[in-house]
Specification:
Radius of gyration: 19 Å
Structural class: mainly beta
Shape: globular
Strand content: 35-45%
Helix content: under 10%
Strand order of the largest sheet: 4-8-7-6-5
Largest sheet: 5 strands, mixed
Length: about 350
């Protein structure tokens, strides 16, 4: 399946104000200060984040207190997911009305097995949806349904899958399914933590971004010596020939105890929400590494290569766990993002300005 990289007006990313480009796959550009001296790199130009407004949902939101993923393929058509679900939902975004209206459900599995949906990325006319690729944090149970990543091709005008639904499976015809398990269990850094619980620094995906034909997979855990991780891999290698997959493992200096809870591609860099890498203790795992109950959520920017990240600031007074984010608008001066919160009623959709 080929996903179009739509460049015409109507696609959210293309509708954003053009930026002076920083090459996110290489060295970031820098801007001179007023006196001509070289200043901060382009990705580090923002140092503040503030709450602007709350949005609301209209319609029946599935697992509405467990929302963990959102992405859009046009200014009005988006997809949301919950970590207890086996389906995603198409929503209509209205900036003027400050609302998200549920339009349709899309099944990703023929069964009701939990995928543990943790992130969605939208690019062109395709969505990418990933499960956590981790064990249950309650009991350490291994569920095959959690170790999946999906590609779904949609009509950007309606947000619905192209080619309809297969009547035999009740699944979209334009749905592809793969897994990152072979990469994770064989990687020299991540492999020793594969299929271990979050409380014990086990592998767990919580972020996903798409840019220039590549996927950037963000890991909540492990955090090793203050470093969090991103796997960069071509989408074609995930859903095409899986023999000898080529990928790059990035190590990001987020600090002790912090993991990636969301990553999205902006025009000049990536935005990252960082929070607890570990999870709260459970009856089976009473001791937890890299977890503090009062640890908040921080917004960072990252140029897309290297270990350096720029701290923008804390997300103040979050109504839940900040785990899903999409960009509403972007300019040289600011970015506006919509964040959903796991644990908040109907996700507590909130708009923030980064400047």
């Amino acid at each position: 399946m080929i996903c179009r990289q739509i460049s015409k007006p109507g696609l959210l990313v293309a509708a954003l104000t053009a930026l002076a480009a920083a090459n996110c796959s290489g060295a970031a550009s820098v801007r001179p200060n007023s006196d001509g001296a070289v200043g901060q790199p382009d990705y580090a130009r923002w140092s503040n984040i503030e709450f602007l407004a709350g949005y609301s949902f209209v319609g029946d939101v599935f697992e509405d207190e467990d929302l963990s993923a959102i992405a859009c393929v046009s200014p009005t058509r988006c997809l949301i997911g919950a970590d207890e679900a086996s389906k995603v939902q198409v929503v209509e975004l209205s900036r003027q009305g400050e609302r998200l209206k549920v339009l349709a459900d899309i099944a990703l599995l023929s069964s009701a097995a939990e995928i543990d949906i943790e992130a969605i990325a939208g690019r062109g006319d395709c969505y990418y949806i990933t499960g956590s690729h981790g064990v249950s944090k309650e009991d350490g149970k291994i569920q095959d349904s959690r170790y999946k990543i999906f590609r779904l091709k949609v009509d950007t005008a309606t947000g619905l899958p192209v080619a309809g639904v297969d009547p035999k499976t009740s699944l979209p015809v334009a749905l592809e399914v793969s897994s990152l398990s072979d990469i994770l269990k064989n990687d020299a850094v991540l492999g020793p933590h594969f299929q271990k619980p979050l409380q014990h620094n086990g592998v767990n995906i919580e972020g996903l971004a798409a840019k220039d034909g590549k996927l950037f997979v963000g890991f909540r855990s492990p955090n090793l010596r203050g470093n969090a991780y991103v796997v960069e891999i071509a989408a074609g290698e995930v859903f095409g020939d899986k023999k000898g997959r080529h990928y790059k493992l990035h190590s990001l200096s987020l600090g002790d105890g912090y993991g990636i809870r969301e990553i999205v591609a902006a025009q000049s860099c990536f935005l990252i929400i960082a929070g607890n890498s570990g999870s709260e203790p459970s009856e089976k795992f009473p001791q937890s590494e890299n977890y503090q109950a009062d640890r908040g959520y921080l917004m960072y920017s990252w140029p897309g290569n290297g270990s350096k990240v720029h701290r923008i600031g804390p997300i103040e007074n979050p109504p839940g766990k900040a785990e899903a984010m999409m960009i509403l608008s972007e300019s040289q001066q600011q970015i506006e993002v919509l964040i959903l919160f796991d644990g908040a009623k109907k996700g507590g959709p909130s708009v923030y300005r980064i400047y």
